[in-house]
């Protein structure tokens, strides 16, 4: 009898201990996140807020869990109405560049409590079939958000697709446009590497980079090769400038975002008129992955997909030299137009 009572008592103590530990962890997480987000976020009417009222950042921080439930379809229309949630057209778009770091930039900006990201590439403006479905179809593809937040989407193909600038202009002529770029030769090799990996998964053969990047007949750079053509940033940017002033663009250094992300993110916060909230606390270097990962709070961390940071194949140094020499005058013009000089060879 005594043995049964002792066993019963031990079981009760174990349950109470588990509850206490769970409560303690919740309080630590709650206090940690609220302490960091306690300041008031003065988000004024510039993002379509209903009033000039200030919005506590902790109220916006609450949206992470709630909006996750909406994405999973676990909430009703009544809950949408009660929480005053909407699906807004984006106030900013990451328009490119492919293999420049668009996914990393989007995920890092999502650390800001006033930002909500569209998780998937919508391909509305570069896909004729999608575009024909209309702007309401596009809006419905956006995540739920509070009116005081801004929605950002990214589709890297926008930058190089001829019809896109005019289409975006017709939607919102004052939209803010983000372009993340890397050193052009490195970006072209990264582009090639992604395609190569896809071919290998299907047991298909593929030409070496050198054979694609250099025209065998002329021994000059092959501008018909898409990976090369995409890296001529100034050619694509000039088409966008027919519709938008340069002040509506912000250039993000994709190479620096890899090695030193915080200064680049702070520049984007300023460009988007967001109060500075992303800090070193939110970014930690993962030595195993070789990249920075994201810390939303002391409980929730996130690293980019394992497909990011693929190892590039070895490329003939003479081809790299030829490509860099080819890109140099285009790079200089790009610096001149954008007002941002990047340390590219």
TrEMBL record:
UniProt-annotated binding residues for 3'-phosphoadenylyl sulfate: 99-103, 182, 190, 292, 308-312
Active-site residues, as the UniProt record annotates them: 99
Disulfide bonds: 293-303
Membrane topology: Single-pass type II membrane protein
Reactions that this protein is recorded to catalyse: alpha-D-glucosaminyl-[heparan sulfate](n) + 3'-phosphoadenylyl sulfate = 3-sulfo-alpha-D-glucosaminyl-[heparan sulfate](n) + adenosine 3',5'-bisphosphate + H(+)
Family affiliation: Belongs to the sulfotransferase 1 family.
Protein's name according to its UniProt entry: Sulfotransferase
């Amino acid at each position: 009898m005594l043995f049964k009572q002792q066993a019963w008592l031990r079981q009760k103590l174990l349950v109470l201990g588990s509850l206490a530990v769970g409560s303690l962890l919740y309080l630590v997480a709650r206090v940690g996140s609220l302490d960091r987000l306690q300041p008031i976020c003065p988000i004024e009417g510039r993002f379509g807020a209903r009033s000039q009222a200030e919005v506590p950042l902790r109220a916006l921080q609450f949206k992470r869990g709630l909006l996750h439930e909406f994405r999973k379809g676990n909430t009703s229309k009544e809950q949408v109405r009660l929480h005053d949630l909407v699906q807004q057209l984006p106030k900013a778009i990451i328009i490119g560049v492919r293999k420049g770091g668009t996914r990393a930039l989007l995920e890092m900006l999502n650390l800001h409590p006033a930002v909500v990201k569209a998780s998937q590439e919508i391909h509305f403006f570069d896909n004729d079939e999608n575009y024909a479905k209309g702007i309401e179809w596009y809006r419905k593809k956006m995540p739920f958000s509070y009116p005081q937040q801004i929605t950002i989407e990214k589709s890297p193909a926008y930058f190089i697709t001829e019809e896109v600038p005019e289409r975006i202009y017709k939607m919102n002529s004052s939209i803010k446009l983000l372009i993340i770029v890397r050193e052009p030769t490195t970006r072209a090799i990264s582009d090639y590497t992604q395609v190569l990996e896809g071919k290998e998964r299907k047991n298909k053969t593929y030409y070496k980079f050198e054979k694609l990047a250099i025209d065998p007949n002329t021994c000059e750079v092959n501008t018909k090769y898409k990976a090369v053509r995409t890296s001529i940033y100034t050619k694509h940017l000039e088409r966008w400038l027919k519709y938008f002033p340069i002040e509506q663009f912000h250039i993000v250094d994709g190479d620096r975002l890899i090695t030193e992300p915080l200064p680049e993110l702070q520049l984007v916060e300023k460009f988007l008129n967001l109060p500075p909230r992303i800090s070193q606390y939110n970014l930690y270097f993962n030595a195993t992955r070789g990249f920075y990962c994201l810390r939303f709070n002391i409980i929730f961390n996130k690293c980019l997909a394992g497909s990011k940071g693929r190892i590039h194949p070895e490329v003939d140094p003479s081809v790299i030299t030829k490509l860099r020499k080819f890109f140099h005058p285009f790079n200089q013009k790009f610096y001149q137009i954008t007002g941002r000089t990047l340390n590219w060879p």
